[in-house]
UniProtKB/TrEMBL annotation:
Organism: Collinsella stercoris DSM 13279
Lineage, opening ranks: Bacteria, Bacillati, Actinomycetota, Coriobacteriia, Coriobacteriales
Entries under InterPro entries matching the protein: Asp/Glu-ADT_sf_sub_c, GatC
Keywords annotated in UniProt: ATP-binding, Ligase, Nucleotide-binding, Protein biosynthesis, Transferase
Family membership noted in the UniProt record: Belongs to the GatC family.
Descriptive protein name: Aspartyl/glutamyl-tRNA(Asn/Gln) amidotransferase subunit C
GO terms of molecular function: asparaginyl-tRNA synthase (glutamine-hydrolyzing) activity; ATP binding; glutaminyl-tRNA synthase (glutamine-hydrolyzing) activity; transferase activity
Reaction equations catalysed: L-glutamyl-tRNA(Gln) + L-glutamine + ATP + H2O = L-glutaminyl-tRNA(Gln) + L-glutamate + ADP + phosphate + H(+); L-aspartyl-tRNA(Asn) + L-glutamine + ATP + H2O = L-asparaginyl-tRNA(Asn) + L-glutamate + ADP + phosphate + 2 H(+)
Self-association state and partner proteins as the record states: Heterotrimer of A, B and C subunits.
């Protein structure tokens, strides 16, 4: 399936890319070459092949729950023991955005 200059013009407009006539012709040829390189993949696309949407398949949420581990949690006073400065149970660091104390 070859892309026409109208197709490329619509893609460029969607991507808010300004193309003059020469660039439009070059981009049309370039995109058609790119699509042509993908043609061999179609040889593997048979009626009995399910589309793959993720390389791992039925991936589910693999992240741990967002809960404190009581066995590994560090008490606040121990965590702040070597801090250069702390206030109200928090590390106190110099402001990097300005406007701070």
């Amino acid at each position: 399936m070859a892309l026409t200059e109208d197709d490329v013009r619509a893609i460029a407009a969607y991507a808010t890319i300004a193309l003059d006539d020469a660039e439009l012709a070059d981009m049309t040829a370039y995109l058609n070459d790119a699509v042509g390189m993908l043609e061999p993949i179609l040889a593997y696309a048979g009626e009995d092949v399910e589309p793959t949407f993720h390389p791992i398949g039925d991936l589910s949420n693999v992240m741990r729950s967002d809960a404190a581990d009581a066995d590994r949690a560090l008490p606040t006073d121990v965590a702040l023991a070597n801090a250069a400065s702390s206030r109200e149970g928090q590390f106190r660091v110099p402001s990097i955005l300005g406007g701070g104390e």
